[in-house]
């Protein structure tokens, strides 16, 4: 599911990325056919594997497909597409990641307190919101050229930075609540590191006149690659 979501995103964002990330667009165009087949195969496998768990797991896996379809079409004549509404893209991506990371493990294991599931859901939802908005900050020039009204295009850099810092700050009461319930005990240092890391990369990538390159993908999208070893070491 993770691979298919990323693959679909790279295929559908070619027009915007021609301005924001021409090097990646060139690569995606070269492997477009193979990428399309890979996306289809990964989606089919994700649905089949989820069907072995429960019908609800299938719904979780199918959510990004249904949401992506509804996102691109005009549901009612005279009304804007979901794609044309500021922030909807960020919400869909955040909900997709939160659904997968919170609900799929819950459906497989069962017997987990709903409070714990809700806390996990919020963590991944808000992390995804912050991260997708950071990529919108990077893409602000291309989005303006293409008339795409993302949150950073609407708010501008300064107010976008303030909003990102505010959203990341909601993890402070989150971690206090998790601690009060006695959840994630030995992983608290890793979670605290992730929250602090969020502040650092928000401030780093929202500097005026700064154009991030691949470091944004590695540092932000690749956060789980360097936090996972920390969690495993706990």
TrEMBL record:
Keyword terms, alphabetized: Membrane, Transferase, Transmembrane, Transmembrane helix
Q: Which Pfam families match?
A: UbiA
Superkingdom classification of source: Archaea
Q: What is its main location?
A: membrane
Q: How does it sit in the membrane?
A: Multi-pass membrane protein
Q: Name one GO cellular component term.
A: plasma membrane
Keyword Protein transport in annotation: no
Spell out where the chain crosses the membrane: 34-52, 58-76, 88-107, 119-137, 162-181, 187-206
Instruction: State the similarity comment.
Output: Belongs to the UbiA prenyltransferase family.
Query: What is the name attached to this protein's record?
Result: Prenyltransferase
